[in-house]
Amino acid sequence: MSFEERIRNASQTNKSRIVLALDLEDPSPERLAGRSKEILEKVSPFVCAVKLNRQLVLSLGLRNGVDSIVDLAHQLLLPTIMDAKLNDVGHTNEFMTRTYADIGFDAIIASPVVGWDDGLEPVFRVANSRGMAVILLVYMSNPGAEMFYSLMAAQGREPARPVFEQLTELAVQWKAHGAIVGATKPEVIKRVRQLAGDKLRIYSPGIGAQGGDAKRAWEAGADYLIVGRSICQATNPAKAAEQLRNEAL
User: Fold this and answer.
1) Angle, vertex CA 130, rays to CA 127 and CA 135, nearest 5
2) By C-alpha distance, which of 203, 115, 107 is closest to 166?
3) Does this model's pTM top 0.90?
4) What is the pLDDT of residues 39-61, one digit of tens each?
5) What is the H or E stretch that residue 83 is in?
6) Which residues pair with 185 in a beta bridge?
7) Is the model's pLDDT at 1 over the cut of 90?
8) From residue 136, how far is each of 16, 40, 114 by CA, in Å?
9) At residue 152, what are phi and psi to the nearest 5 degrees?
10) 85 is a catalytic site residue
């Protein structure tokens, strides 16, 4: 089953388009692993996928650490996304993609700024052979992202256009599954949707803690919301996830 099918099935079953960003921090690996699994189990009925960042990878390691969280997510019928933001040379990107695939991740996030040749070509090649989806970073959710992603740039004799528009077109050209576009920029979400049509799924992080508004992101064209701190740092994570899920409905 493809990632597209997995996340669609989970979304339909749980009536949710919320992706849990399980990006916790704790100096104790034991507490970190326990808390991550506890939150995952509690919010699982209200989300459609789980995204893991490098906080857990660096603190727990992949083997006998993060892999157990990936396994739990699969037991709960939730697909997993590795937020690797791959942006290195080809052989390094290939190794990381293969390693995360071995752990069991269903999708991986990469940065298109490294280009195709000896950049992301190995990522797509490995991902396609292993049944993984590739989601490309088109516009980040932090305030400083505007300095680069909205930068006007020209190729050859073409008129200058914002970098994020060119990255969107590359994502479509390379047949990526989706694009990351911050919920803090609904006008960018709308433009990415115009450019990509139905060829990309838009994942929008930055809800709550970073100031992004769920309703505005939906109306602009987001397919899924990526939510971390607003759920994980809530007194009752399950209630917070359910409320976000219901707002989306």
Assistant:
1) 30
2) 115
3) yes
4) 999 999 999 999 999 999 999 99
5) strand 80-86
6) none
7) no
8) 22, 25, 11
9) -85, 125
10) yes
